[in-house]
Amino acid sequence: MNLMLSYRKHRSSADSTWYICLPGWAMDDHIFDKMTQNVNAIIIDRYDPFLIKDEISLVLETHHISEAVLVGYSMGAMAGTTIVSPAVTRHLWLSPALDYPKPVIDFISKQIECNKQDYLKEFYKACFIQESAFQDFWNVHGKRLSETLEEAYLLNGLDFLKKTTLQSKDYDKTPLDKTIYGEIDYIVPEKDQDALIGYFGQRAQVLPQTGHFVLDAVTLTQNGIPEVQSSPILPGDTPPTPA
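The chain above was modelled as a monomer; its predicted structure follows.
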């Protein structure tokens, strides 16, 4: 299978800063559309997390980008810790998938192989707190994603998560601007949430009444500081654990 990098680029500002957006597992470029409508952005569609370090360096060189902010969502935040470039001045992590349990990843892999579309629907649903927010997402993106994301692509991402463990040394070497995650986030365990706040302090932000899918509740301003916006994610029940 061809896992080469796929992305699109748009310039919306005279500012020299570019936002390099890395989606998470089972997500694509349209997830970042609203966030980056007022900034210059390169939005990654498909990528191999094992190769992203070298590929992003090539992208920055090809487009002569000397100042970039790396925005990583979920698995994209994990993959982003491997990218070291003088051009990348800051990182913004959204719902980073920290140390996902290996037995759970093995189970998910088997579920994907048995019934990819049904599993992805449950996965997306669990990312939201409110049912209506999930339905809005599913109607716009979910059906298309569950049909077009190849099994091999998804399994490759799961393999990366299984082999990647984020250590404190990774925090130290990352020029982190801020890390944001939902108050009820089934992918970021409670123990990791406490560790994030303890380590990052002022740089850690919890969005109340949001789940793992925090992108609908966050946007980027011209200077790259995340601000909480009105969101379709409203108070509700704890999301179900993915089957």
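Residues 6-228 form a domain with the Rossmann fold fold (CATH 3.40.50.1820).
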